[in-house]
Specification:
This protein is an alpha+beta fold. The chain has 2 helices and 5 strands, in the order H-H-E-E-E-E-E. The C terminus is likely disordered.
Length: 146
């Protein structure tokens, strides 16, 4: 038979005045084993660190492409209301080498369809091309995505 009360029952008894608060109680005449005391205390947990978008790499990054020539153009050209240029989505990885502005984009590397999930950046790939080191996208906000 156990003489330990669940913490919620004990708290209810103390708050209703049925039992004296721990500081008002006389010291017990018998001691409880250390394992019993551990069951009376709520577990101590350290909250997980908050991850912000700036702390993580994107899953997909867009570059602006002229769909008639498959040549990469400046990202700002995709921000207009004209349908001349389109965003081309590349699945980001540390091994990916982004094409430079003016270079032909291999259409097998990505898609003109915006990814529905993941951490998506509408811009931010280096205009001179090359790899992006971890955190190299910093400061760019995603438009949509999570």
């Amino acid at each position: 038979m156990s003489y330990l009360l669940p913490a919620t029952v004990a708290a209810a008894l103390v708050s209703s005045g049925c039992v004296a608060a721990p500081s008002e109680r006389a010291a017990p005449t018998t001691s409880l084993p250390p394992t019993a005391l551990a069951t009376l205390r709520p577990p101590t947990t350290t909250p997980a660190p908050t991850t912000t978008y700036a702390d993580t790499e994107p899953t997909d990054v867009a570059i602006c492409v002229d769909p008639e020539t498959n040549v990469r153009v400046d990202d700002d050209l995709c921000d207009t209301d004209e349908d001349t240029y389109s965003r081309f989505w590349l699945h980001h990885s540390s091994a990916l080498i982004y094409p430079a502005v003016g270079a032909v984009v291999g259409l097998t590397l990505g898609s003109f369809i915006r990814p529905a999930t993941g951490r998506v950046l509408d811009r931010g790939a280096p205009t001179s091309g090359g790899r992006v080191l971890r955190g190299g996208f910093g400061g760019h906000l995603p438009s949509g995505g999570s």
